[in-house]
From TrEMBL:
Organism (species): Echria macrotheca
Gene Ontology cellular component annotations, sorted alphabetically: endoplasmic reticulum
Assigned EC number: 3.5.1.89
Protein name per the record: N-acetylglucosaminylphosphatidylinositol deacetylase
Any one GO molecular function term: N-acetylglucosaminylphosphatidylinositol deacetylase activity
Pfam families on file: PIG-L (PF02585)
InterPro entries per record: GlcNAc_PI_deacetylase-related, LmbE-like_dom_sf
Top-rank taxon: Eukaryota
Family, per entry: Belongs to the PIGL family.
Length: 305
């Protein structure tokens, strides 16, 4: 038994000192590069038009469209806080298309949502959880696209919304309600003549999702040249093509607000959510893509890059 236990130690001891030095350097780079990028985007270039497009930062009324209460802080908090914190003239709104009543606690979750909105800087009058009979929390039911689009359009008109953020086609977690929201809002934003600009939150693979800041270098790669330009020549205006993507990172203060927002959802605070609030990239940073308009008569199509 002692001989077996000694074998790993012997193997480690056989690794050359030079190899250890390279391993240490690689580990140091793997830790420091994500931290540096997070700091740069959160504190130095986050307001630059090439990183956070004017379509979002200069909006008057921002609307976040989700499926259930708690989506706003589990997935969208960096975007909500990153936009509202940088422009106090923007009025934020949240439209959750259900009360999350899958386990019969919809009324409780609606009350919890109000507390989360307060933590995120969204006024209670614009913090809505719908309770439509055809839009109930159900992981097996695809919601009616036309109905969702109709409800979203009603709130766009009511609140004079000029920018929307919602899920992309993957729904971040793959939940069927999330993906249905994405399909409806994306179609509405692409085709309705009066629809405001809309951005979707990028879904990543499971390994990338739970790497804390480890996914930041890969996420920031398409923005690398823009980040360098923003560090050298800050600007509040940018080429229209730069408005197709956005990168928003939480500062430490905004991360604390994200945790405070989720703390308002005690019914959802299970042990795995404690880990999620540390390890998930979505509580640290968001990357967004603009929904392209479908070219029609007299329109030019916006091509996503």
């Amino acid at each position: 038994m002692l001989q077996l236990a000694a074998k790993p130690a012997l193997l480690l001891g056989s690794i050359p000192r030079r190899a250890w030095r390279w391993l240490f350097r690689a580990a140091l780079v793997a830790v420091l590069v994500p931290l540096l990028l997070q700091w740069v985007v959160a504190y130095l270039v986050g307001s630059d038009a090439r990183i956070l497009p004017p379509q979002l930062l200069a909006a008057s009324n921002l609307l976040i469209v989700t499926a259930h209460p708690d989506d706003e802080c589990l997935f969208f908090a960096p975007s909500i806080l990153g936009v509202l914190d940088r422009n106090k003239d923007i009025t934020g709104g949240l439209l959750a298309l259900s009360t999350g009543n899958n386990y019969g606690i919809g009324d409780l979750r609606r009350k919890e949502l109000a507390g989360s909105c307060r933590a995120l800087g969204i006024h209670e009058q614009r913090c809505i959880a719908m309770d439509h009979p055809e839009l109930q929390d159900n992981p097996k039911v695809w919601w009616n696209t036309e109905l969702v689009a109709k409800i979203v359009h009603e709130h766009v008109l009511k609140w004079k919304v000029d920018a929307i953020i919602t899920f992309d086609e993957g729904g971040v977690s793959g939940h069927i309600n999330h993906r249905a929201v994405s399909a409806a809002v994306s179609h509405y934003a692409a085709t309705h003549p009066d629809a405001p600009v809309a951005y979707t939150l990028t879904t990543t693979s499971l390994p990338r999702k739970y790497t804390l800041l480890g996914d930041m270098p890969l996420t920031a790669l398409p923005f690398l040249w823009r980040i360098l330009e923003a560090l050298s020549f800050p600007t509040h205006s940018a080429d229209p093509k730069d408005g197709v993507r956005a990168l928003v990172a939480n500062s430490w203060h905004r991360y604390q607000l994200t945790r405070e927002a989720f703390a308002q959802h005690p019914s959802q605070y299970t042990w795995d959510r404690h880990l999620y609030m540390i390890l998930s990239r979505y509580v640290w940073f968001n990357d967004l893509k603009r929904v392209p308009r479908i070219a029609g008569e007299g329109q030019q199509q916006v091509v996503a890059i």
